[in-house]
Amino acid sequence: MKSLSPTPLAKDLSLRGQDLDKQRLYNKGVVSPNIERVGNSLIVKMHGVRGSIPQPKNTSKYGGNTSCYELVTDDFQIILDTGTGFQDVILDRQKTTIILYSHFHHDHIQGLPFNLGVFSHQEDIYLASGLVNRHVLKNLIQTYFSGGYFPVDIVTILKQLKFTNYSTLKRKLASKCKLNMIELNHPGGCMGYSFETSKGKFCYLLDNEYVATQLDSLLKFVKGSRLVLWDGMFTEKELELREGWGHSSIERACIFAEQADIRELIITHHSPARTDDELDQLSKSLTSSKVSFAVQSSEVEF
Ligand SMILES: [Zn+2]
Ligand SMILES: [Zn+2]
After folding, report:
1. C-alpha–C-alpha distance, residues 244 and 84, integer Å
2. 20 to 30 Å CA-CA from 258: which of 103, 168, 218, 224?
3. Residue 13 pLDDT
4. Are the C-beta atoms of 299 and 45 separated by less than 8 Å?
5. 35 secondary structure, DSSP code
6. How far apart are CA 175 and CA 215, in angstroms?
7. CA dist 63 to 21, 85, 89, 154, 282, Å?
């Protein structure tokens, strides 16, 4: 991992017209069995690696923002969940922007209107989730960000938010990126995703309470991955009192990584109670050389 350059506070607010190529790609909905060369970029950026609630205390090294990750290719900017880390995402007008939700617990959606770029972005922003169809998705987001919960109804104001079915998104990405999903073990449901391009495969597996019955399907799902992101919110000891809360452990991540045909697994969704010092200490006890802890504002380049 390497550090991202500092987020420019002054964003380029110059607007430009619709990118016709991007629009054509969406309109065409091309399905191709062959993944085209994606050029020279595939980067995963970590904008929010904390679970449940933002934690500013003793987290300056690993970060305190809640779930938000960004997958960048030459053509697409795919944002995975919009926790408070979403405030640091720079929306790229040169690419098609997609927000893909794993599920709708508040730590995965709460940052959506706190990215100032969302309000100035003139191009469409596509929102989808494998968990629900576009109508349910729109209703969930609109309910959370309106009425008694939020001062403005962002779904009504932001016409550029385009609620899309997962199946439509999958078709539209198909020529550049093979997208798949897997059902995870989490109260209320949650979807994990894999992204496969000519540069490599990346899996996003949070939130998930890993149990032995998932082993075969998860091993198959992650096979050949360059990088897997894993929910390791708790330790095994902490999990004794938190069974059924929907999160996995650091120890299970290490065991799984050793069994899986993958190059690297990064544990994320850190407990808000976990300090930098504790994560440093836990780093020394990791039992797989493939495993490390996610650090906010870092990135992995494929
Ligand atoms: Zn979560
Ligand atoms: Zn959750």
Report:
1. 25
2. 103
3. 29
4. yes
5. P
6. 30
7. 37, 9, 15, 27, 16
- Tell me the residues surrounding ligand 2 (ion) with CB < 5 Å: 105, 207
CA of 269 to the centre of ligand 1 (A): 7
- Tell me, in angstroms, the distance from the centre of ligand 1 to residue 33's CA: 33
Q: What is the pTM of this model?
A: 0.88
Q: Which of 210, 218, 214, 191 is nearest to 105 (CA)?
A: 191
Tell me how far apart the alpha carbons of residues 17 and 209 are, in angstroms, rounded to a whole number.
Answer: 44
Per residue in 164-201, pLDDT (tens digit) is 999 999 999 999 999 999 999 999 999 999 999 999 99
CA of residue 208 to ligand 1 center, whole Å: 9
Pairing mode, strands 178-183 and 191-197: antiparallel
Ligand whose nearest atom lies closest to the CA of 67:
1
Q: How far is CA 183 from the centre of its chain?
A: 15
> Tokens representing 34?
């062959």
Q: Which residues contact 146 (CB under 8 A, 6 or more apart)?
A: 152, 153, 154, 155, 156
Give the pLDDT confidence score for residue 41 in this predicted structure. 82
Within the chain, what is the greatest distance between any pair of CA atoms?
55
What residues contact residue 204 under an 8 Å CB cut-off, 6+ apart? 69, 80, 102, 192, 193, 194, 195, 229
Q: What is the dihedral of CA 208, 270, 72, 195, to 10 degrees?
A: -20
Q: Which residues touch 81 (CB under 8 Å, ≥6 apart)?
A: 48, 67, 68, 69, 100, 101, 102, 108, 109
Residue 29 has pLDDT above 70, yes or no: no
| Confidence bin at 40 (pLDDT 50/70/90) | low
Rounded CA gap, 206 and 51, in Å? 10
- Per-residue pLDDT at 20 exceeds 60: no
Which ligand places an atom closest to the C-alpha of 50? 1
